[in-house]
Amino acid sequence: MHARQAVVEDHTRPDARFAVPEPVRRAGVQMCLNMPMIAGDRPTGVLVADYLTPRAIGEDQVRFATLIAGVVAVAVERAVEHRRNRALFERVPVGLYRSTPDGRLLEVNEALVRLLGYPDRSALQATNAVQVYANPEDRARWQQLMDREGVLRDFEVQWRRLDGTVIWVRESARVVRDAAGHPAYYEGSAEDITARKRFEADVLYLASHDALTGVFNRHRFQEELHRLIAQAERAGQAGALLFVDLDNFKEVNDRLGHRAGDDLLRAVVRAVRHRLRESDVLARLGGDEFGLAVPEVGAGQVLAVAERILGAVREQAVLVEGRPVRLTASCGIALFPQHGATVDEILTAADLSLYAAK
Q1: Contact assessment for residue 158 and residue 171, using Cβ atoms and an 8 Å cutoff
Q2: What is the CATH number of domain 94-197?
Q3: pLDDT tens-digit map of 69-114
Q4: Percentage of the chain with pLDDT > 70?
Q5: pLDDT single digits (tens) 122-149
């Protein structure tokens, strides 16, 4: 083995270099030809030819046998490598797959079976890979990238589990081509990133919404107001901004505590929302002050909107020292583009109108 050349061993000679294993002796083996198996530069084993009677072995026979041993060594090396890769394929905690260009799943590991919630490997492989994508346009985009680039890295996309649950995965893949250069199959990996996506969505939500009431915060409201002003200008339409301030909210907060005050603010938002259109934008600007952007309304219509909002506030009542106290509110109104063409101008106009109303 270490000499890397074939060695003939006659077991009948008393000066034999190697002890003959007992099972070999009982089988009647009297001579053997040991041929090292070399794959590339690495020895992988020894191929042994046993003879029941001693015989002369010519150099041509040894060379031919050594050639056969080399072929066997390469085959064994590939088999060992395949087994090693297969073990890695199964043990890695990330979903792995091989699929044909038409979406037939050739191989999947257990991690992918668990990721997609299938009962077993065969059930998943009976499903076309195209059906795993929650949105068909995402699979089309995936295919376009693979056709153009031949490789895909960190492709974030939504998949659908067997039970219908939609999850986010980060997918990487590459195309393996045949001798003619045509795609033979794809091999890729998929990692569940649903928790990360949910966390990012939560952060984005908190950055644009009021944590107490769930409506937009001041920053997001100004962005929406800018959008509505620009939209009205393009369409040659009008819109309105309403500032609503709760008049006696401080009394409720001081006497009943902040928890009761918070509950009352949430109740006011629910009541106001019921009186809004889908296109209207409501926000809590701070404390007991709210903003409402209303597109496609004129001066006459906005007064009716304001009355509906104030009526919703008046419906909210709480007990203070045993007697019911109804909330009231003041409202300031600014029209765009009549009272301004920018966000700052409209905000200032609405603020002045609210001050006059109070």
Answers
A1: no
A2: 3.30.450.20
A3: 888 877 777 777 766 666 555 677 789 999 999 999 999 999 999 9
A4: 94
A5: 999 999 999 999 999 999 999 999 999 9
Tell me the fold of 209-357: Alpha-Beta Plaits (3.30.70)
- Is 68 in contact with 47 (CB distance < 8 Å)? yes
Residue 338 carries which DSSP code?
Answer: T
Rounded Cα distance between 98 and 106, Å, is 5
Q: Which sequence spans correspond to the domains of the chain?
A: 7-89, 94-197, 209-357
Structure tokens given for 32: 């053997």
Place of tokens 């929406």: 224
DSSP 8-state class, residue 332: E
CATH class of 7-89: alpha beta
DSSP-assigned states of every residue in 27-59: TT--EEEEEEEEETTEEEEEEEEEESS-----H
Strand partners, 319: 324
Q: How many residues does the chain have?
A: 358
For residue 102, the Cα-to-chain-centroid distance in whole angstroms is 23
Determine how β-strand 239-246 pairs with β-strand 105-108.
unpaired
pLDDT in tens, 21-55: 888 888 888 888 888 888 777 777 888 888 888 88
Cβ contact 32:53 at 8 Å: no
* pTM value surpassing 0.90: no
